[in-house]
């Protein structure tokens, strides 16, 4: 049985950890591991891969998802999982071609937001420093703040107070200005329930079509002011 084949994945540089994982389980969800372990590379012959630049804790969390389709272990609640853990899992999924893992991270990220009704702005530099312009994680950060946060607060505690806005990535400031303009001129509807539109922030999985929510989002982007 091909599902009985085990591969060794060594993760980390300073602190290394080796994981033993069923080969087909890994290859079936990841374009990176599929190419490495089923192609003509050295890793395919050795049935082992070194991921020196990756974080062992992030890989372990991803391994949990691989076998259980959950990013929480049995002892954790949604609130227990740290925001930074979910961002790192999303980035790992992006780097290693695992869109379903990225979507699982987005879903739990949104679940935390719904429960806590806020997302730390300290995540902005981490997200904007590690993602592309079209990243769904960037879009989620912009949308939650543009559509739900009170951006009108004045004074030193205001969103755009001089000392605070200097800590925000300039690309984020541009993105949120564009989003607020779209809302103002009617090109975007106000999002009141992020649970209902969560698939808008999902990465496309090969072989799986876009959802109605994703199609609707594209249509709204293309509608000009009346």
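Q: What amino acid sequence fits the structure above?
A:
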């Amino acid at each position: 049985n091909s599902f009985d084949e085990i591969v060794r994945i060594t993760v980390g540089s300073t602190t290394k950890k080796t994981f033993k994982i069923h080969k087909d389980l890994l290859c079936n969800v990841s374009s990176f591991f599929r190419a490495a372990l089923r192609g003509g590379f050295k890793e395919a012959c050795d049935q082992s891969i070194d991921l020196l630049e990756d974080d062992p804790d992030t890989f372990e969390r991803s391994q949990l998802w691989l076998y259980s389709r959950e990013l929480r272990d049995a002892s954790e609640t949604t609130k227990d999982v740290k925001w930074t853990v979910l961002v790192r899992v999303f980035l790992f999924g992006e780097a290693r071609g695992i869109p379903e893992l990225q979507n699982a991270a987005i879903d739990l990220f949104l679940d935390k937001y719904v429960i806590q009704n806020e997302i730390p702005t300290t995540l902005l530099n981490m997200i904007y420093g590690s993602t592309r312009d079209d990243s769904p994680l960037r879009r989620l950060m912009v949308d939650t703040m543009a559509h739900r946060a009170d951006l009108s607060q004045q004074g030193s505690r205001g969103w755009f107070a001089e000392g605070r806005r200097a800590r925000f990535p300039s690309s984020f400031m541009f993105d949120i200005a564009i989003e607020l303009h779209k809302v103002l001129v009617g090109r975007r509807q106000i999002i009141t329930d992020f649970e209902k539109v969560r698939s808008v922030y999902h990465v496309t999985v090969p072989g799986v079509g876009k959802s109605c929510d994703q199609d609707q989002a594209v249509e709204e982007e293309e509608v000009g002011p009346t």
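Q: And what stands out in the fold?
A: The two ends are 61 Å apart (CA to CA).
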